[in-house]
Write a structure and sequence with these properties.
By secondary structure, the protein is an alpha/beta fold. Helices cover about 40% and strands about 15% of the residues. The chain has one domain: Spore Coat Polysaccharide Biosynthesis Protein SpsA, Chain A (Alpha-Beta Complex). Strands 3-2-1-4-6-5-7 form a seven-stranded mixed beta sheet, with helices on both faces.
Length: about 250
Amino acid sequence: MIGDKKIVVVLPAYNAEQTLEQTYSEIPFDIVDDVILVDDNSTDDTVGKAKQIGIKHIFVHDINKGYGGNQKTCYNNALSLGADIVIMLHPDYQYTPKLIQSMAYLIANDVYQVVLGSRILGRGAIKGGMPFYKYVFNRLLTFTQNVLMRQKLSEYHTGYRAFSKTVLESICYNNNSDDFVFDNQMLAQICYAKFDIAEITCPTKYFDEASSINFKRSVKYGLGVIGTSFSYFFNKIGLAKNKIFQKPENSTE
């Protein structure tokens, strides 16, 4: 804990057997209280490795529900455990667990309620081996999103994120897609609910074992991102009512 804030790290896993132990070993357990791993019907022995290294909270999907579906299970179970701060960390070791302290303290000290690890601040993306076409797509999509959503984020596409309990309970993330666009829908919901977002510089690594979507899936994702941004814009000016921007029934916001 930090103060009286319970910190839970969630690991949305798919075929992470080879990188899980290295990721888990660098989690700062001096402040992290619990770790949740959700296995999205992996074809390798991710679950066996998770049990071997001592992860207590393991949830397994009987069918592959997709990256967004995996996150829904992660956040729902983190809240059930009484988390005050939830940090999503990919178990493929693409993002360093060594930034967990910095992200958690910003939230625990009520400076921000959302923190993103940005690969674009500094030179983390290219230096870490991000494919050039993905870097270009990232910059073009981020520019479009900032214009349509009137934000100033360096990127919307990082998978390294920390949220306060208040944020997760204030948005309908379970209404989002089960696919990769879930990430962008969630950030759109957070901006729509008027939460401020902090970003910290995050190095990243691209290597064979790190998960990454191919060009075709990247195009589909990009179209979904643009659709989400336009949906946000039209909801803001009152010309649309998308269910992802509804408030949860138990929300006090």
